[in-house]
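Notes taken during the Thursday session

The instructor put the following on the board and asked us to keep it in front of us for the whole hour. The protein is Quinol monooxygenase YgiN. We were told not to look anything up and to reason only from what is written here. First, the residues (96 in total):
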Amino acid sequence: MAEVRVIARAVAREDKADELKALLSGLVVPTRAEAGCVYDDLFESNLPGIFVFNELWQSQAHLDAHAASSHFKQIFGKADQILAEPLEVNLLTAVG
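Then, after some discussion, the predicted structure tokens were revealed:
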């Protein structure tokens, strides 16, 4: 199975950065414990209110299971109310 690399970007609504940071931070530990998660790191940009997940999954099936997990659905159910735009998810393929 091919590994799947993910870069996901979340942008907070004005004055909601701290709330989004706390919410997204709560996703890291349970995600790291999931089957197939090689790593899952959350970063805060130097630009206000922007957060980036850097993830590596053993397979697409593992990533799909993550997206269907109860903790993912719970967090992003709440995050939708404080995101300035939809979550941007990029699946990456190495080219060199």
